[in-house]
Amino acid sequence: MSPVLRYLVSPKNLIGGALALLGLVLHLFGLLGPFPVWVLVVVALYAVGALLGPRRRPQVAKDTFDPQEIRHSLDHTYQMTHGRLPVDAQSRVARIRAEILELLPHAAEFPPGSQDLYVLRRMAVDYLPTTIEAYLALPATYATERVVQDGKTPLQVMNEQLELLDSKMEEIAEAVHRRDSDRLLANGLFLEERFGRTSGGLALPPDQRGAG
Predict the structure, then answer these.
(1) From CA 15, how far away is CA 32, in angstroms rounded?
(2) Angle CA(129)–CA(131)–CA(136) in degrees, nearest 5?
(3) Buried/exposed code over 121-130 (b: 16+ C-beta within 10 A; e: otherwise)
(4) Total-model pTM
């Protein structure tokens, strides 16, 4: 919908128009005085209505987490790099892809509104493909030989960006694995307290020993 049409159907325009119409009715009954007084009153009534009318809240698209979307984006990004990146850069892209895919089964374990979960999705659908596409848009010779920033070529700049993305994914993965390890250790403590320890492994609770 165009901005003009959106305003025409907005509460501000509808309320302002209603008040302006009321002013015209008052003018027809001779209550607003001669021209141009009644015109100014009608305009003022519309302005008051438009000013006091509620603003329509913009609809914000939710940044939903869709594993299928993430897999598709990762596959597309990885496929477009084949034969077009140096081996070390290609390997880093593959590692980032693998790290993201490894974390997908853990998506439900992230707390609501998790910044790490947001970054994980954006990494797959935005940060990684944007980095690759920006580099691949350059001619090969320019990308590997032309100095563009701080004595670095576009290839070196891209490698630094990939290293940064890789580092962030490792950080998120470490947090997830540490949480899983803590849960495993907590479960071990519970089992030790519940069943005790014997040389042969787990033991039955005391009230069941010697039963039968």
Answers:
(1) 20
(2) 90
(3) bebbbebbbe
(4) 0.58
Are 180 and 105 in contact, with CB atoms under 8 Å apart?
A: no
Tally of CB atoms within 10 A around 42: 19
Give the pLDDT confidence of 32-88 residue by residue, as tens digits.
Answer: 777 777 777 777 777 776 777 666 554 444 457 788 999 999 999 999 998 899 999
Contact assessment for residue 8 and residue 2, using Cβ atoms and an 8 Å cutoff = no
Instruction: Supply the DSSP symbol for 31.
Output: -
Q: Are 9 and 41 in contact (CB under 8 A)?
A: no
133: burial class by Cβ within 10 Å (0-12, 13-18, 19+)?
exposed
pLDDT of residue 107: 86
Asked if residue 140 has pLDDT above 80, the reply is yes
Q: How far apart are CA 27 and CA 12, in angstroms?
A: 23
Cα distances (angstroms) measured from residue 54 to each of 57, 59, 94: 9, 15, 51
- β 197-198/201-202 pair status: antiparallel
Sign of the CA dihedral with 39 first, then 42, 45, and 46 last: negative
pLDDT tens per residue across span 163-182: 999 999 999 888 887 776 66
